[in-house]
Amino acid sequence: MFSSDDTIVALATPRGRGGLGVVRLSGARAQDVAQALLGRATVLEARRATVTTLMDGVGSRRRAIDEVVATLFPSPGSYTGEDVVEVSAHGSPVLLDRIVALAVAAGARLAEPGEFTFRAFLHGRLDLVQAEAVADLIEAVTPRQARVAFDQLEGTMTARIAALDEQLFDLTMRLEASLDFPEEGYHFITPAEVAEGIAMVRGKIEETLAEASQGRLVREGCQVVILGTPNAGKSSIFNALLGSSRSIVAGQPGTTRDLVTERLDVDGLAVTLVDSAGLRPATDLVEEEGVARARGAVGVASVALVVLDRSRAWSEAELQALREADEVPRVVAVNKVDLPAAWQPREFEGLDGIGVVEVSAATGEGLVRLRSALVQALGGGEPLRDSPAVANRRHTRLLEQAAAALGAAERSVAQGAAEEFVLADMARARTTFEELTGSRTPDQVLEQIFERFCIGK
Ligand SMILES: Nc1nc2c(ncn2[C@@H]2O[C@H](COP(=O)(O)OP(=O)(O)OP(=O)(O)O)[C@@H](O)[C@H]2O)c(=O)[nH]1
Ligand SMILES: [Mg+2]
């Protein structure tokens, strides 16, 4: 994938105007390149911020274009494990582009997306799970996502895998010893001990997997689509949950036709909230398209929030609204409780066994309860764990493979199969661990992982 013997450069801060912008260099020639850019007398000491000037032009036309702070992080104790120089300049896009161009002229190459973190991985500064955590941390949109990503960066997941691998290694060694000295039979380890050891490791993998669905929910967020009868106050509730008048609210039914989508932090979960036209029978082509889009949104939603109007007589339309989205978990918001009631939720069978919350988008009553009902529905009813260690599909897939391999090993032991078979299954499990942490990961997988980063990370 990336060539790793040249020196790379990129803007490490977002493009755009700001107080500061940081250009980062990494590689064997980072110091030389920096020297070519900085004022002549500059001596960069390790890990010491040095105030200096940034120079442009050659000979008599050479002049300072900014005052900067440069810091050298020498190999191997830097982010990438190579010599790194960070130059903090004023946050002007033209200036920062120029600094990057000057670094390239002095022999650096523009970094590819994720290349700094890739080098950190390559030089053993981070394992693959931690490198993924860097991308997650940068992309986090809720504080909880950031915390889970940071835990992973700190190595919670890495430590768990290392402990499991160690246990498997120990079992493997003892079983191999029994093989090498067959006359001693199962002297080094009994089949019962092998079975017990393997079952224990598999149990821990399954525990970790059980946490994974929550971890994934935190990491990837989820979609909540708002459905319900026309004019029930769907858009009003959408706006109230967001705290802004994002969707148009009006007295006549059929106001919302297209999908209106907004990101929302619900107790740390990144929820994509979708206001829709509902699934009512359409009266014209535009509306028909709107209803089709609403149906499409239900298809990918984790939860449907069905809004009903309590101030209006109960009719077939309410039943219809409840019936239509029954393929996803539902929360029902019985809205307009500030107005006289035309019916009571408990009178209707369709509402049995679904979370029903009485609210008023107009006064804000019940909104806190509505939020917690949503969190409940999203988290499968269990309280959300604070820091699930596993969070992405690559991890869960590999852990499932490891658990399956160990399951096969357990069966082999139970059937009294030769040690070689048991050892082969255990070796498969250990290979998935290596793939997880990156000590043995195919290049295409690495590419996919680092592609997710943007340039400069
Ligand atoms: N009194 C009262 N009026 C409400 C409440 N919620 C919404 N309304 C009013 O009900 C009407 C319809 O509200 P919307 O939010 O546009 O309803 P909707 O379900 O999005 O409507 P469509 O998009 O047309 O299907 C508006 O006049 C709102 O002001 C509420 O809690 N109490
Ligand atoms: Mg609407």
Features:
457 residues, binds magnesium ion, binds guanosine-5'-triphosphate, Gyrase A, domain 2, Rossmann fold, 6-stranded mixed β-sheet, 14 helices
Q: Would you mind describing this structure in some detail?
A:
The protein is α/β, with parallel strands linked by helices. It folds into three domains: 118 residues, 2-Layer Sandwich (Gyrase A, domain 2); 106 residues, no CATH class; 158 residues, Rossmann fold (3-Layer(aba) Sandwich), CATH 3.40.50. Helices cover 45% and strands 17% of the residues. Strand 10, helix 10 and strand 11 form a beta-alpha-beta unit. Helix 6 packs antiparallel against helix 13 and helix 12 runs antiparallel to helix 13. The longest helix has 30 residues. The site of magnesium ion has 4 residues, from helix 8. Guanosine-5'-triphosphate binds next to helix 8.
- Radius of gyration in whole Å, from Cα? 29 Å
Report the biggest beta sheet as strand number plus sense, adding barrel if it closes.
6 strands, mixed
Order of helices and strands: EEHEEEHEHHHHHEHEEHEHEEHHHH
Distance between the termini: 16 Å
Q: Are there runs of 5+ residues with pLDDT below 50, and where? A: none
CATH architecture of the largest domain: 3-Layer(aba) Sandwich
**Structural shape:** flat
Number of domains: 3
Q: What's the CATH H-level superfamily name of the largest domain?
A: P-loop containing nucleotide triphosphate hydrolases
Give the beta-strand count: 12
Ions and ligands: guanosine-5'-triphosphate, magnesium ion
> DSSP strand (E) fraction?
15-25%
CATH topology group of the largest domain: Rossmann fold
Largest sheet: spatial strand order? 3-4-5-2-1-6
Averaged pLDDT? 89
Helix percentage: 40-55%
Question: Helix segment count?
Answer: 14
CATH C-level name of the largest domain: Alpha Beta
Structural category = alpha/beta
